[in-house]
Amino acid sequence: MYGKRKQFDRRYLLIVIIVVIALALVVLAIALKKDRNLNPVERVIKDAGMTVLKVVRMPFNFVDDKIKEAHEKDNLYRKYKKLKEKSEKIDSIISSNDNLKSEVKKLQDTLELNTLLSDKVACNATIVSRNVGYWYEEVTIDKGSKDGIKKDMAVVTPKGLIGRITKVSKYFSTVKLLSNDNMDNKISVKIKTNDDYVYGLISKYDSKTNTYTVEGVSQSTIITEGASVVTTGMGTTFPSGLLIGNVKGTATDNFDLSKVIEVNAAVDFNDLDYVTVLKRENK
């Protein structure tokens, strides 16, 4: 009996509380008009409520700001990656463009050389192989006996003489470079002096300075720095007038009997791509 009465009292108490709250809300709704001033109690309640609301919202605002900041950083990083990729592509395009310009320039120089060598039968070729271990000794070109290439033919670039053909197959040929350390046949050259020439022999090549050493020049001869050094045409290998380089300096041999001439090579043996084989002279 006591339990049922207690349960009944709780129900009434709950109903009373709900009614009181409802009446308070109605009174508050009526009392709170937009155009009236708040009384002191209302101001205290409002300030306290807003302060509590502000404090409650602070951690939520903090988390929201951090989430937005993380999104912004992520967006910035994605934009950075895209810009970096574009920059790398641009660098690659520029590099490729520069390489193409260089290739076109070399081909143009080769065509101009063909015009200058109009009195000779020239065969243009591309270097297809170069052994790192024999870098300054020989190269392989993509022309052979089917193209009329024969042993001992001279090989040049637009800048000057680079060597001669030593081995020939049907489709490929080996070029022995003038930079080869083992010069079995010394090359006869002539050096321009005023209106005349003096003669000598190339004895060696120095890959560190890209220079030739010419020996056998008369001690009494005056050699001017920068003078052209070309082939003499003596022998059956190299035609006359092929550029070797320019005089860099002079000295005397160990016996003080003749001059030793240092010659800057006209050709950069580290940068060989396209060459021309001089097959024969037209008659």
Short recap of the structure:
38% of the residues lie in helices and 31% in strands. The chain is α+β, with helices and mostly antiparallel strands and 283 residues long. A hairpin with a 4-residue loop joins strand 4 and strand 5.
What do these coordinates show?
The protein is α+β, with helices and mostly antiparallel strands and about 280 residues long. It contains 2 helices and 12 strands; from the N terminus they run ααββββββββββββ. The chain is rod-shaped, with a radius of gyration of 47 Å. The N and C termini lie far apart (about 140 Å).
Give me the secondary-structure topology.
Blueprint: H1 2-31, H2 40-116, E1 120-129, E2 138-141, E3 154-157, E4 160-168, E5 173-177, E6 187-193, E7 196-206, E8 211-218, E9 228-231, E10 243-252, E11 258-265, E12 274-281
Antiparallel strand pairs: 1-2, 1-12, 2-5, 3-4, 3-12, 4-5, 6-7, 6-9, 7-8, 8-11, 9-10, 10-11
The rounded distance between the terminal residues' Cα atoms is 142 Å
How many helical stretches? 2
Helical residue percent band = 25-40%
Please describe the biggest sheet, giving its number of strands, its sense, and whether it closes into a barrel. Answer: 6 strands, antiparallel, barrel
The ordered string of helix (H) and strand (E) elements is: HHEEEEEEEEEEEE
Helix/strand structural class: alpha+beta
Q: Summarize model confidence as the mean pLDDT.
A: 76
Q: Tally the structural domains.
A: 3
CATH-level-2 architecture of the largest domain: Beta Barrel
In the sheet with the most strands, the strands line up as: 1-2-5-4-3-12
Computed Rg: 47 Å
